[in-house]
Design goal:
6 helices, 2 strands, 119 residues, mainly alpha, 62% helix, two-stranded antiparallel ribbon, elongated
Protein backbone atom coordinates (compact mmCIF):
# COMPACT_ATOMS: atom_id res chain seq x y z
CA UNK A 1 0.00 0.00 0.00
CA UNK A 2 2.95 2.30 0.61
CA UNK A 3 4.16 1.91 -2.99
CA UNK A 4 0.65 2.53 -4.26
CA UNK A 5 0.40 5.68 -2.15
CA UNK A 6 3.67 7.02 -3.56
CA UNK A 7 2.65 6.42 -7.18
CA UNK A 8 -0.86 7.75 -6.62
CA UNK A 9 0.60 10.80 -4.84
CA UNK A 10 2.62 11.63 -7.95
CA UNK A 11 -0.44 11.22 -10.18
CA UNK A 12 -2.51 13.47 -7.91
CA UNK A 13 0.29 16.04 -7.76
CA UNK A 14 0.42 16.30 -11.55
CA UNK A 15 -3.38 16.40 -11.81
CA UNK A 16 -3.54 19.15 -9.18
CA UNK A 17 -0.86 21.14 -10.98
CA UNK A 18 -2.86 20.94 -14.21
CA UNK A 19 -5.99 22.10 -12.38
CA UNK A 20 -4.16 25.02 -10.77
CA UNK A 21 -2.71 26.15 -14.10
CA UNK A 22 -6.10 26.03 -15.82
CA UNK A 23 -8.30 27.36 -13.03
CA UNK A 24 -7.86 29.37 -9.86
CA UNK A 25 -8.47 26.93 -6.98
CA UNK A 26 -9.19 29.88 -4.66
CA UNK A 27 -12.18 31.00 -6.74
CA UNK A 28 -15.55 30.73 -5.00
CA UNK A 29 -17.00 27.24 -5.44
CA UNK A 30 -13.79 25.80 -6.85
CA UNK A 31 -12.97 23.48 -3.93
CA UNK A 32 -15.83 20.96 -4.41
CA UNK A 33 -15.07 20.87 -8.15
CA UNK A 34 -11.36 20.35 -7.39
CA UNK A 35 -12.10 17.51 -4.96
CA UNK A 36 -14.43 15.81 -7.43
CA UNK A 37 -11.80 16.20 -10.14
CA UNK A 38 -9.13 14.53 -7.98
CA UNK A 39 -11.54 11.71 -7.09
CA UNK A 40 -12.17 11.13 -10.80
CA UNK A 41 -8.42 11.15 -11.48
CA UNK A 42 -7.94 8.45 -8.82
CA UNK A 43 -10.84 6.43 -10.25
CA UNK A 44 -9.33 6.78 -13.71
CA UNK A 45 -5.91 5.64 -12.50
CA UNK A 46 -7.18 2.52 -10.77
CA UNK A 47 -9.87 1.56 -13.26
CA UNK A 48 -7.47 1.88 -16.22
CA UNK A 49 -4.85 -0.40 -14.71
CA UNK A 50 -7.34 -2.86 -13.23
CA UNK A 51 -9.13 -3.27 -16.56
CA UNK A 52 -5.92 -3.36 -18.64
CA UNK A 53 -3.93 -6.21 -17.17
CA UNK A 54 -5.27 -6.21 -13.61
CA UNK A 55 -2.21 -4.54 -12.09
CA UNK A 56 -1.25 -1.04 -11.08
CA UNK A 57 2.42 -0.08 -11.06
CA UNK A 58 2.74 -0.97 -7.37
CA UNK A 59 0.85 -4.25 -7.81
CA UNK A 60 3.33 -5.22 -10.54
CA UNK A 61 6.24 -4.64 -8.17
CA UNK A 62 4.70 -7.01 -5.61
CA UNK A 63 3.41 -9.47 -8.25
CA UNK A 64 -0.28 -9.09 -7.38
CA UNK A 65 -3.13 -8.97 -9.86
CA UNK A 66 -6.80 -8.20 -9.32
CA UNK A 67 -9.46 -10.12 -11.22
CA UNK A 68 -13.11 -11.01 -10.91
CA UNK A 69 -13.94 -13.80 -8.48
CA UNK A 70 -14.59 -16.14 -11.43
CA UNK A 71 -11.03 -15.57 -12.72
CA UNK A 72 -12.04 -13.31 -15.63
CA UNK A 73 -10.48 -9.87 -16.21
CA UNK A 74 -12.22 -6.96 -14.53
CA UNK A 75 -14.53 -4.66 -16.44
CA UNK A 76 -15.13 -0.98 -15.74
CA UNK A 77 -18.17 -1.61 -13.52
CA UNK A 78 -16.25 -4.03 -11.29
CA UNK A 79 -13.38 -1.55 -11.11
CA UNK A 80 -15.70 1.29 -10.09
CA UNK A 81 -17.39 -0.84 -7.44
CA UNK A 82 -14.06 -2.04 -6.04
CA UNK A 83 -12.75 1.54 -5.99
CA UNK A 84 -15.83 2.85 -4.15
CA UNK A 85 -15.81 0.04 -1.58
CA UNK A 86 -12.05 0.35 -0.98
CA UNK A 87 -12.61 3.72 0.69
CA UNK A 88 -13.58 1.72 3.78
CA UNK A 89 -10.05 0.29 3.90
CA UNK A 90 -9.59 0.08 7.71
CA UNK A 91 -12.65 -2.15 8.02
CA UNK A 92 -11.53 -4.12 4.99
CA UNK A 93 -8.08 -4.81 6.43
CA UNK A 94 -9.54 -6.12 9.68
CA UNK A 95 -11.93 -8.27 7.64
CA UNK A 96 -9.00 -9.85 5.77
CA UNK A 97 -7.48 -11.08 9.04
CA UNK A 98 -10.54 -13.27 9.64
CA UNK A 99 -11.55 -14.11 6.06
CA UNK A 100 -11.04 -17.78 5.14
CA UNK A 101 -9.24 -16.78 1.89
CA UNK A 102 -7.56 -13.67 3.38
CA UNK A 103 -9.48 -11.47 0.93
CA UNK A 104 -10.41 -7.87 1.70
CA UNK A 105 -14.04 -6.98 2.38
CA UNK A 106 -14.17 -4.68 -0.65
CA UNK A 107 -13.04 -7.59 -2.82
CA UNK A 108 -15.72 -9.87 -1.36
CA UNK A 109 -18.46 -7.28 -1.94
CA UNK A 110 -17.26 -6.35 -5.45
CA UNK A 111 -16.81 -10.04 -6.36
CA UNK A 112 -13.13 -9.53 -7.14
CA UNK A 113 -9.98 -11.06 -5.71
CA UNK A 114 -6.26 -10.44 -5.40
CA UNK A 115 -4.07 -13.22 -6.73
CA UNK A 116 -0.33 -13.74 -6.70
CA UNK A 117 1.14 -13.80 -10.21
CA UNK A 118 3.32 -16.70 -11.25
CA UNK A 119 5.81 -14.76 -13.38
Amino acid sequence: MLYETLVLGAVIFIAALIFIVLRNPQAPGAMPFFQAYLLLVMLGYFSWFWTHGGQTVAMRAWRFRVERADGQPMNFMHACLRFALAWFLPISIVWAWFDRDKQFLHDRLARTRLVLCDF
